[in-house]
Amino acid sequence: MVALERWPRDGLPDNPGAWITRVARNKAIDRLRRARTLEVKKEVLEGLERLAPKTEELEEEEESDLPDDRLRLIFTCCHPALRPQARVALTLRTLGGLTTAEIADAFLVSEATMAQRIVRAKTKIRDTGIPYEVPSPEQLPERVSSVLATLYLIFNEGYFASRSESLIRTELADEAIRLARVLVETLPEEPEARALLALMLLQHSRREARLNEAGEMVLLEDQDRSLWDRAQIEEGVALVETLRGVIGPYSTQARIAAVHAAAERAEDTDWARISLLYGQLRQIQPSPVIELNRAIAIAMDRGPEEGLELIDALEGLDRYAPYHVSRADLLQRLGREREAVESYLRGLELSSNPVQREFLERRIDELESAG
Asked: What is the C-alpha to C-alpha distance for residues 81 and 135, in angstroms, rounded to an integer?
């Protein structure tokens, strides 16, 4: 039925069989996701009932400056009495619809470790009597950084789903963007909120090019850039231009995304500029993941040898799949196929997304066939 509706309008796809297979798979995924969403919603509602104020508290509560219910709840959960990571993790679990395993992936820790953090946060809320209350306008700034981190991690899970059957969870990415828009409207003088919205828009603009007709993952350098959403790019770049003189984690990442968006072809990418921006980012927000991205940019700018040397010097990323995949790519570029296969296999072992796993399996098969 979908083919009968779309093909007369859009034209026959290059590979009709692959198109039908992809649509059928996506419909099955949607059914599974709806079932999973119902379970998540039930758990979220139960969590909100525990957080909900009594009737008399609602009567006394003053009207909030936050116009969106979900955004109000996110600000409420990001209480400064909790440690920053605990605030974000608890909010993602209670309101973001993410599983403990997905949150653990985002923080690069085990599921058991993250479960303990969430339990400790809930225990502290109970034992110290942290109230359910919408923060006053004076209290908003001290919670903004945690709210931004929460929205960013929700978006990231939508952009690259760690444990979903699909690569992209559009509903999560769209909701994170919607909430970021509300936050920008509520706090127009907060530059990092504008920066986060710009970053999300610029990254999400590539969504149609990230999978081919067969549903296979397409790397950034191989994407058909005519499929990128120009309206989202224009809006994102316009927001970046309002950040002159602003130096922060999201504004720097937004500038990196804007450099990618400005390149009409992959070979036009200003990798020198990107590597400099990652150098700034690691000063603001030191992280081995940022160091990895900087090493990749340097490899693209100066050659795989220099990038591989930087990657091999990194510590703390052995259980991070992109580390091994990036290393494998550089080894492959250097003609070191056997070592590349070993790194791809390690990345495959750590990857839980089936679309990414299929991509890595194809890379491994290609290298082994060539060898």
From this structure: 13
Q: Is residue 221 part of a domain?
A: no
329 lies in some domain:
yes
Q: Which amino acid is at 91?
A: T
Q: Residue 125: inside a domain, yes or no?
A: no
Tokens 């974000």, residue located? 88
Q: Which domain holds residue 269?
A: 263-313
Considering 52-61, 67-76, 126-135, 214-223, the range whose residues carry the highest mean pLDDT is 214-223
Q: What DSSP string describes 137-184?
A: TTTSHHHHHHHHHHHHHHHHHHHS-SSSSSS--HHHHHHHHHHHHHHH
User: Is the model's pLDDT at 33 over the cut of 80?
Assistant: no
How far apart, in whole angstroms, are the C-alpha atoms of residue 94 and residue 45?
Answer: 9
| Phi-psi group of 170: left, alpha or beta (phi > 0 → left; psi -120 to 50 → alpha; rest → beta) | alpha
For residues 350 and 328, the answer to whether their CB atoms sit within 8 Å is no
Q: From 296, 313, 330, give the residue that closes a domain.
A: 313
How many folded domains does the chain comprise? 3
Tell me the two tokens of residue 168: 């992209």
Output the pTM of the full model. 0.77
Task: In whole angstroms, give the CA distance from residue 30 to residue 21.
Answer: 14
**308, 323: one domain:** no
Domain boundary, last residue among 272, 294, 313: 313
Would the pLDDT of 121 be above 70?
yes
Q: Is the residue at 275 inside a domain?
A: yes
CA gap 239, 195 in Å, rounded: 7
**What is the residue-wise DSSP string for 339-354?**
HHHHHHHHHHHH---H
